[in-house]
Amino acid sequence: MRTPSSHPTRPTPAERVRSILRAAQSMTVVSDGRHHEVHRLDGGAMGAVHLHAPHDGTPSATHPRVPVRLELTDIAPTPVRDRLRARVTLTGLMAAPYHDVPGSTCMEFGQAVLESGGERRFVTLEELDEASPDPIATSEAAMLMHLVDSHQELLPLLVRLVRPRPVRGLLRAVPLAMDRYGVTLRLEYPGTHQDERLPFATPVTDLEGAGPQIHALLSAARRAPHLGPLLT
User: Fold this and answer.
1) Cross-strand pairs, 31
2) 3-state SS record for 14-26
3) With contact defined as beta carbons under 8 Å apart, do 114 and 16 qualify?
4) Domain tally for the chain?
5) Distance (Å, rounded) from C-alpha 137 to C-alpha 19?
6) What are the tens digits of pLDDT across the range 84-135?
7) Would you place residue 62 in the very low, low, confident or very high pLDDT band (cuts 50, 70, 90)?
8) How far is CA 15 from the centre of its chain?
9) Are 145 and 49 contacting, i.e. CB atoms less than 8 angstroms apart?
10) Which of 88, 81, 78 is nearest to 19 (CA)?
């Protein structure tokens, strides 16, 4: 890990949930006892469902509210081991069972859960509203795949920034994730792997700022001591 800085070096749970909702291309809606697979989301999950605070009134026979659960998975776009990065589950109430129709359906917020790395974190609607969208979220997959497909030679270079030094026997390093705060590398060993965070010098505020921050990481890596043979 690089030397810690005064600014955040990784997204909060609320920011991760916002990013997953924004970039999602599909989700599973569980409503009225049925599972409904929704694909080709325009504008992410929040383009299909609008979250709002719970209604103060009680349901009536003329205005019933149907319990709904939204399930989303965050899958790494790169060919890493164990590509599942996170799961997001949103629960709430709708005026009617969800149908895949154009436009946004309103959903009274109940609870949001982020599952990642063996941990479960609960996120409130207030935290979601306060979390600003990650400017890289919708372009992350293309950027990571470009790095893997066109600049494979740069990945061992980035490994120089990993602290403490990786142990011998490394099979390969693959970019797992990228957000406004940095890049996560997955270091794969025989039978195991570990994730290492390489934070940017400053958080990215727009998509155009991502390139300079990546180049800054590469410049720092070129100045770092050569690690010697690590790959098997």
Assistant:
1) 34, 68
2) HHHHHHHHHHCCE
3) yes
4) 2
5) 6
6) 999 999 999 998 877 766 677 899 999 999 999 999 999 999 999 999 889 9
7) low
8) 8
9) no
10) 88
* pTM, full prediction: 0.89
Among 105, 130, 155, give the residue marking a domain's end.
130
- Does residue 218 form part of some domain? yes
Shared domain for 124 and 87, answered yes or no, is: yes
Partners of 123 in beta bridges? 112
2 domain residue, yes or no: no
Residues 126 and 147 in one domain: no
Helix and strand totals (H; E) in the chain: 5, 10
Q: What pLDDT does 63 receive? A: 60
| 102 and 26 within one domain | yes
Position 228 in a domain: no
Residues 196/217, Cβ–Cβ less than 8 Å: no
- Would 51 be classed as within a structural domain? yes
Over range 70-81, report the average pLDDT: 96
